[in-house]
Amino acid sequence: MNSMNRFDLIVIGSGAGALVAAQAARSGRNTALVDQGPMGGTCLNNGCIPSKMLIHPADIIRSIQEAGAVGVHARIEKIDFPLIMNRMHKVVDEGRAQMEATIRSRENLTHYPERAEFIDEYVLKVGSRTLTAPQFVIASGSRSRVPPIPGLEESGYIDNVSLLNLREPPQSLIIIGGGYIGCEYGHFFSAVGTEVTILGRSPRLLSGEDPEISQRLHESLSRYCRVVTGYEVLSVER
User: Fold this and answer.
1) Is the predicted pLDDT of residue 92 greater than 90, yes or no?
2) What does the mean pLDDT of the chain come to?
């Protein structure tokens, strides 16, 4: 193993962590940014940004479909699913490239695009290197949580990450979970023609929001999706 590399600050995670590392480096602190990638973390690569890029065309589809209510009569000739997905990936790829360029050009900032683990107090093993610093920021983001439902693994599933690589919309889709991610993708896929069922174990969608908001969302989504709340998924099978 190589000799110890010493820094003023080590930041783990390249989403919000990249912003913290860049700001620390800008202030003159010798900073290391450690992350196994991809640059941009959850928000850029499979969270906030790609989901909003898909919600926008879904909103346009619904606006056209409902425009007759305000006296505008229009129809949709075609929904180009590959174009919608390619547009989303283009924005994500451009954002990632910009972040990578910023990190490379920043003085006082060293990027280690590798998996890391603590091997001692204030000592981090990154590949064949060891790094140390008096301060660490851990902003390692999130990953998909797959519920331990009997039969789910055997039957096969997509999650909020793998669905971003679909090249055509599924004919039908059951979404397990009535939180904001499930509702967002229920809106999107139902708009592009998928038969969508949303299953939530809570008595209402978005259980953390005000009851009036949940009820309004339930009414809106139910116009295009089958929404079932208050039920626990016990098993999955083909």
Assistant:
1) yes
2) 94
